[in-house]
Amino acid sequence: MLAKMTSKNQLTLPRSVTDQLGDVPEYFDVALRDGQIVLTPVRIQRGDAVRAKLAALGLSASDVADAVDWARSTQQVPVAAEAGPAYRNPVSRRKPRS
Questions:
Q1: pLDDT digits over 47-63, tens only?
Q2: Are residues 78 and 60 in the same domain?
């Protein structure tokens, strides 16, 4: 199956492929492996999903505030750039909107 790259480096994924994913994600992690471009679906958790998870765990806003205070009071952890190749966050590599 072919997909043509536009002059703006954009590809349209064939529907026959995305239909097999079921709920098609909005974001994909893009990697180059052995000369092949590999797209991996990434599900970004939205604020509502995070709030629902906190509620399911029985955590309150004060629990979250206590956790943030605790995290800020402990030893500094390395930032992503210092964390090495094992650290992967596809959202942080996006260009800021202008």
A1: 878 888 888 999 988 98
A2: yes
